[in-house]
Design brief:
alpha+beta, Adenine-n6-DNA-methyltransferase TaqI, Chain A, domain 2, four-stranded antiparallel beta sheet, four-stranded mixed beta sheet, 17 helices, elongated
């Protein structure tokens, strides 16, 4: 921190300016010999980075070979990516090798911690060391430090704590919003897929009596598409799982996923030999996210011409993709646009609706925890590496409304999801503002703008007070006259 850009040239009355070198003492921790995993008589908690951050103790140390600190002592992370981060010792213990204790005779320990938090950006941004970064002691020592009178320091600490408590409460409330929105989206999908979202719409416009005829037409079209794309002997669609207790609303039909698709297949295992810098894109399991295809990471391929696997694995607009192997098993996303030369791997299955206009609704249905997504979870097998089989995908039960009602469902869900997305964006902005607010509070604290100055209160009350300069001079005199200091001077003269 420099005097020019971080501290007012016009200090509040009664304040002084110093440096961290002049008003603090540092003590680096060390890793003692004889560390133990369990507490036993005579050992003290070893305050490493985990204990510093989480207040949990994994190791215990013998006091004899340790740097001991008292609980409540300000600590600074001295080594590592978070160098410069400040906090307090959670209890009496042995100080870890990556931490330094920082104490002062003229700065309240709470105010010292807040000041170190205020200059964290400077300490962390000017570390040294090529492998593991370290706080640069020269940078630390030369940081210009505003020094209020002692009584004012304590009032500042109390005010900062009160304000930051409010900021923390706001952060906690904001942190809960994404989970609330997640539950909201699933509640919307549940209502959409069981007919409640459009119940009044059906009353107004009718339930669609021709749906069964439409389903029969899909079966006929399915056979034609099967012969064109599957290139095997036609197989009638599988029936849905009879164990499902989902009942369709009036005017809807209960059908299997197989009856709605002409193709359910995955990519080939043999495609790794085609990896390279080709023009094709290999869609991996990590690319399939709920509701959307994420191609931020790509595997390029150059598949051979006239290859059956190439034709079978190539996606087209209107397809639905589902992850069938790995941690993302059951994730479903649509292909909303033409994607030439995009192919799925063996961990991703293509579901190709006979009627492409069904895809937007099916995308919602299969991402609903109470419907398609829930069935996928029930069907998934394998503890170490989850799998979802084609047979299970085929018998997934779909509650199907008419195309007209599907469009209305998709429209309403999109509108509600956009509302949730807008709230989510506002939460991100509010969280960023909360982070900035913390620094703004600290900036006001160290510019004398949070509480009345000691000088102001002294005039109002008609009393004298000790200025920061006087405090500093008094502490310096006490240090000079301390028995230890006198002994050192005598030894030096000898």
């Amino acid at each position: 921190m420099s005097a020019d850009d971080e501290v007012n040239d016009d200090l509040p009355e009664g304040w002084a300016i110093s440096t961290l070198k002049e008003i603090t003492r540092r003590q680096k921790g060390k890793k003692p010999t004889g560390l133990q995993d369990h507490k036993s008589e005579g050992l003290v908690p070893y305050l490493d980075i985990k204990a510093f951050e989480l207040r949990t103790f994994r190791k215990y140390a013998p006091p004899k070979d340790s740097v001991l600190v008292k609980g409540g002592t300000p600590l600074v992370v001295w080594d590592g990516a978070r160098s410069g981060l400040s906090g307090f010792a959670p209890c009496n213990g042995a100080l870890g090798s990556t931490l330094s204790a920082v104490t002062s005779d003229v700065l309240d320990s709470g105010l010292l911690h807040y000041f170190l938090a205020f200059v964290y950006g400077t300490l962390n941004g000017q570390t040294r060391g090529t492998g593991i970064p370290h706080v640069d002691p020269n940078v630390f020592d030369e940081i210009v430090t505003p020094l209020p009178p002692l009584a004012e320091q304590r009032r500042i600490v109390a005010k900062v704590e009160a304000l930051l408590a409010r900021v923390q409460t706001a952060r906690q409330r904001l942190a809960r919003v994404p989970q609330i929105l997640k539950r909201f989206r699933q509640a919307v999908l549940t209502a959409a897929c069981d007919g409640r979202l459009t119940a009044e719409w059906r009353e107004k416009f009718g339930a669609g009596k021709d749906l069964l005829t439409e389903v029969e037409s899909l079966t006929n079209r399915r056979k034609i598409d099967w012969e064109q794309f599957v290139m095997t002997r036609y197989k009638p669609p599988d029936e849905f799982d009879p164990a499902s207790d989902l009942e369709p609303p009036d005017g809807w039909a209960a059908v299997s996923m197989d009856s709605l698709t002409s193709l359910i297949t995955s990519g080939s295992r043999a495609w790794s030999k085609y990896y390279g810098s080709g023009t094709g894109t290999f869609i991996m399991a990590q690319n399939v996210r709920p509701y959307k295809l994420d191609l931020s990471t790509r595997q390029q391929v150059d598949p051979p011409e006239n290859n059956r696997d190439r034709v079978r694995s190539q996606v087209r607009k209107g397809d639905l993709l589902v992850t069938i192997v790995g941690a993302n098993t059951g994730h479903v996303c649509p292909i909303d646009e033409d994607l030439p030369e995009h192919y799925v791997c063996q961990s991703v299955a293509i579901m190709r609706p006979v009627e492409p206009r069904h895809a937007p609704y099916l995308n919602l249905y299969l991402n609903s925890e109470s419907h398609g997504r829930g069935e996928y979870k029930r069907y998934t097998y394998g503890e170490g590496r989850p799998h979802l089989g084609f047979d299970q995908i085929r018998v997934t039960k779909i509650l199907l409304p008419t195309l007209c009602e599907q469009r209305e469902i998709v429209r309403r869900v999109d509108a509600l999801f956009k509302l949730a997305d807008a709230i989510e964006r506002r939460v991100v902005v509010a969280t960023a503002r909360a982070d900035k607010l913390t620094q703004a509070i600290l900036a006001k604290a160290f510019h004398g703008e949070l509480v009345p100055t000691e000088a102001e209160l002294a005039r109002q009350e008609g009393r004298e007070y000790e200025t920061a300069a006087e405090l500093l001079a008094r502490i310096q005199t006490q240090r000079a006259n301390a028995p230890e200091a006198k002994t050192k001077r005598k030894k030096a003269r000898a």
